[in-house]
């Protein structure tokens, strides 16, 4: 069993914002692998299904971004998974350009409040993650305003491509391992405009 959590904020007003690319990636996985919706539990909207030969729980926390760890901890505890080898978090990263993704085995929060809360709740920063680039905050912008903004059309296409690659990286992590996915997906993508 593997738990895959995409980070974001619930409610319509946050749909498809930079901060919600984790949610968007979960939606992509649900569509691609026909994962049925199971309801709301553990402070998350979730579904149970299969990706390849692996049983998965896919989840979108309903806690809002900064408290994501509460939901993640409930999921990990309830399903008794090892957070260091059976948990994968997908989220936005402002240090990556739109269209880029990065697969990691572990790491610090890097200023991301959702990840900071997950680390605090789990007591470890050793969990798998896929970061989806949303671009650097423009000068004179407030960070919160920036991550809660939507992409311009040309960037949205690049981000949608990155979400597809993030979903492919999920499959490779499940079918092979995280090292294979890091080797395959951590090369800089040439972005087609």
Molecular structure report:
With 193 residues, this protein is α/β, with parallel strands linked by helices. The chain has one domain: 3-Layer(aba) Sandwich (Rossmann fold). Helix content is 36%, strand content 22%. The chain has six helices and seven strands; from the N terminus they run βαβββαββαβααα. The protein has a seven-stranded mixed β-sheet with strand order 2-3-4-1-5-7-6, with helices on both faces. Strand 2 and strand 3 form a beta hairpin. Helix 1 crosses helix 5. The longest helix has 23 residues. The model has no long low-confidence stretch (mean pLDDT 95).
Structure, briefly:
The protein is of the alpha/beta class and 193 residues long. The chain has helices spanning 21-32, 68-79, 113-122, 143-147, 153-175, 178-185; strands at residues 2-6, 37-41, 44-51, 54-61, 87-93, 101-104, 128-133.
What brief labels describe this structure?
193 residues; globular; seven-stranded mixed sheet; alpha/beta
């Amino acid at each position: 069993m593997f738990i895959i959590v995409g980070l974001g904020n619930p409610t319509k007003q946050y749909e498809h914002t930079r901060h919600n690319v984790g949610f968007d990636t979960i939606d992509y996985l649900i569509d691609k692998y026909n994962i049925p919706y199971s309801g709301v539990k553990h402070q998350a909207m979730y579904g149970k299904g299969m990706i390849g030969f692996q049983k998965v729980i896919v989840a979108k926390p309903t806690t809002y971004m900064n408290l994501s760890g509460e939901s993640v901890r409930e999921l990990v505890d309830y399903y008794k998974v090892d957070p260091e080898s059976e948990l994968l978090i997908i989220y936005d990263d402002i240090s990556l350009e739109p269209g880029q993704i990065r697969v990691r085995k572990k790491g610090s929060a890097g200023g991301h409040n959702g990840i900071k809360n997950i680390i605090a709740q789990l007591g470890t920063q050793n969990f798998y993650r896929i970061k989806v680039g949303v671009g650097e905050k423009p000068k004179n912008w407030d960070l919160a305003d920036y991550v809660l903004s939507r992409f311009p059309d040309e960037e949205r296409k690049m981000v949608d491509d990155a979400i597809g690659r993030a979903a492919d990286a999920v499959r490779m992590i499940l079918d092979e391992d995280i090292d294979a996915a890091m080797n395959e997906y951590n090369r800089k993508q040439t972005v087609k405009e």
